[in-house]
# Entry
Amino acid sequence: MMAETVAVNVVTAEGLLKQWQGHRRLTRRVIDAFPEEALFKFSLGGMRPFADMAFEFIRMAVPIVDGVSTGKWEDLGVNHDRQKPTTKEELLQLWDAQTAELDEKFPRIPPHRFEEVDKAFGMWEAPGIATIQYAIDNEIHHRGQGYVYLRALGIEPPPFWERE
# Structure
């Protein structure tokens, strides 16, 4: 007897944004847990300081949503030239502004764009959903490095399961 294959939608666009924003809330708490100087200067094993990693998320998130939404991908170099924050307060303000921007722009992604394949930033070809997932996975990966840094500094990181 052959099992019937049934298509199941496991996540909605609204659910995906909710998941992403949950990860962003947790990453924000990780940023905030760092002492100011360590956020910008502390590293281990040749990895970048956590502020540089957080700034990477900032440079990517909204441009990915814009690209998935429109099919037009701005050169990532434009975002690499963006002025880096030099204080924790500036970094968190930029983070919060982008969080609001994601809430505003994400719902405008046309449903068909999640499945359409683009060459994002001229670098990789993937459906929109996979490109968004890349941004989320990248944040989770680097947030893990932030947890290692915090523990090395003797600071208890926020519980990874608390995303509200």
Summary: The chain is about 60% helix and 5% strand. The two ends are 45 Å apart (CA to CA). The first helix runs from residue 13 to 33.
